Amino acid sequence: MSSAARPTRLAFDAEAAVEHLAAVDPVLGALMQRAGPYRPSTNAAPDVFHSLMRAIVYQQLSGKAAGTIHARVLAALNAGDAPGAAAIQAADDATLRGAGLSANKLAGLRALAAAQLAGELPDESRIDEYDDAELIERYSAIRGIGRWTVEMLLMFHLGRPDVMPIHDLGVRKGYAVTYGLDALPKPKALEAAAEAWRPYRSVASWYMWRALEAEGAAPQPQ
């Protein structure tokens, strides 16, 4: 599994989304014009399972440190770049802890693998048949995988058009910058305001991150 960024394969027409958003929200339209085309990218993963595996490993770590541990975990599993659930379950705790996993992350990987082996996760061969809400509910029920992680999966791995990560601090800060607010919007207030962006809230959210970067903030999800 390469860690190099690649363009996200979108499940919608990005140009049509930008045109729609500019028409319904001129302030957002001006931001989009300044920031350039909608071009999200993700770290390549062969499937949803391994994208979630990577997300668990990367939690609360810098990109470089997380990438090192992720590579060590793959090497410890000795099953290639996409080891699968069986390899995770077969590995002993000492091997995975020795690769750099914390106890919580090890438990998260075990829970993800167990759910996959038990047939409790959505069928990836039919992933397009599941709506966003169902995927959020199913995946975030797994230990170590929260709602935000699934929202990022939907936006960047699956290229879904209408995801609204209302609890993301960067999106909230970017909204405050873009619309000249003195304080960060509360998640529920942001959710209400973002109704105008349907059915392309993923696109608008991505531009909120770009707005924050334009203010000199740390790099945000790409």
Describe the structure.
The structure is a single chain. The chain has 222 residues and is mainly α. 57% of the residues lie in helices and 3% in strands. The protein has twelve helices and two strands, in the order E-H-H-E-H-H-H-H-H-H-H-H-H-H. A two-stranded antiparallel sheet has the order 1-2. The model has no long low-confidence stretch (mean pLDDT 93).
Q: Tell me the quaternary state.
A: single chain
> Which segments are poorly predicted (pLDDT under 50) over 5 or more consecutive residues?
none
β-strand percent reads under 5%
Strand order of the largest sheet: 1-2
* Average residue pLDDT: 93
* SS-based class: mainly alpha
Helicity, as a percent range = 55-70%
- Rg (CA only): 18 Å
Cα(first) to Cα(last) distance is 19 Å
Shape: elongated
Task: Give me the strand/helix succession.
Answer: EHHEHHHHHHHHHH
How does the major sheet shape up? 2 strands, antiparallel
Number of strands: 2
Write the layout of secondary structure elements.
Layout: E1 5-7, H1 14-24, H2 26-35, E2 41-43, H3 48-58, H4 63-77, H5 84-90, H6 93-98, H7 103-117, H8 132-140, H9 147-157, H10 169-178, H11 187-193, H12 201-214
Antiparallel strand pairs: 1-2
Helix pairs in contact: 1-2, 2-12, 3-7, 3-9, 5-7, 8-9, 10-12
In short:
This protein is mainly alpha-helical.
Any descriptors?
mainly alpha; 2 strands
